[in-house]
Amino acid sequence: MDSVVATKEGIMIKSILLFLALLATTLSKPSPTPPSTTSSTSLSSSSSSSLPYTLGIRDSIMIAHSFHQHPSFGPAGGMHGATYTCDVEFISEKLAPTVNWVIDIGLASDLLSEVLQRYNMQNLDEVFPNGEFTTTEFMARQIYLDLVEKLRSCVNHGEGGNGDGDGSSGDGGCEA
């Protein structure tokens, strides 16, 4: 998936990874704590990357969907539920001046939450009524595109930074 420059500070979305766990077929025990938004920061040790600073956030959604009884999907062709865990990494070659961060973590978390709200607790067959196969890969791309659009909207409306070049929203977040 191509990286997309998201703000004037050179922040990029590196990737969105979704891990699908089919609720009906999972063999693992449920998590003792409910899913929540978490975050992490790290320095990349990869010598191939010229963007060493990374801020990662995580959120999850629960959906229902089918693959319209298509035989390629076997038993998953019928209606079933799934949980997607969405990890997003924002990367930059330098930290924002004055605050030393890649992006305001609150803003990043809020934006991801707003994007995921469209899909959480929804039947994706109704969200995408044209017979799309809403595979994990399809949803990863869709969420990625939605997040890029949201970030571009924030930057275009002057909400991607507070004027100090620090990557914060100044007002706590972008409008949906």
TrEMBL record:
Q: Gene3D superfamilies under this entry?
A: 6-pyruvoyl tetrahydropterin synthase/QueD
Which residue windows are coiled coil?
A: none
Which cofactors does this protein require?
Zn(2+)
Signal peptide positions are: 1-28
In Gene Ontology terms, what is a biological process of this protein? tetrahydrobiopterin biosynthetic process
Q: Where is this region: Disordered?
A: 29-48
Q: Does the keyword Metal-binding apply?
A: yes
Kindly list the GO molecular function terms attached to this UniProt entry. 6-pyruvoyltetrahydropterin synthase activity; metal ion binding
Q: Which InterPro entries match?
A: 6-PTP_synth/QueD (IPR007115), 6-PTP_synth/QueD_sf (IPR038418)
| Pathway, per record | Cofactor biosynthesis; tetrahydrobiopterin biosynthesis; tetrahydrobiopterin from 7,8-dihydroneopterin triphosphate: step 1/3
For this protein, the Enzyme Commission number is 4.2.3.12
Task: Tell me which UniProt keywords the record has, alphabetically.
Answer: Lyase, Metal-binding, Signal, Tetrahydrobiopterin biosynthesis, Zinc
Q: Which Pfam families match?
A: PTPS
Q: What family does this chain come from, according to its entry?
A: Belongs to the PTPS family.
PANTHER family with a match to the protein in the record: 6-PYRUVOYL TETRAHYDROBIOPTERIN SYNTHASE (PTHR12589:SF7), PYRUVOYL TETRAHYDROBIOPTERIN SYNTHASE (PTHR12589)
| Name of the protein described by the UniProt record | 6-pyruvoyltetrahydropterin synthase
Q: What is the lineage of its organism?
A: Eukaryota, Sar, Stramenopiles, Ochrophyta, Bacillariophyta
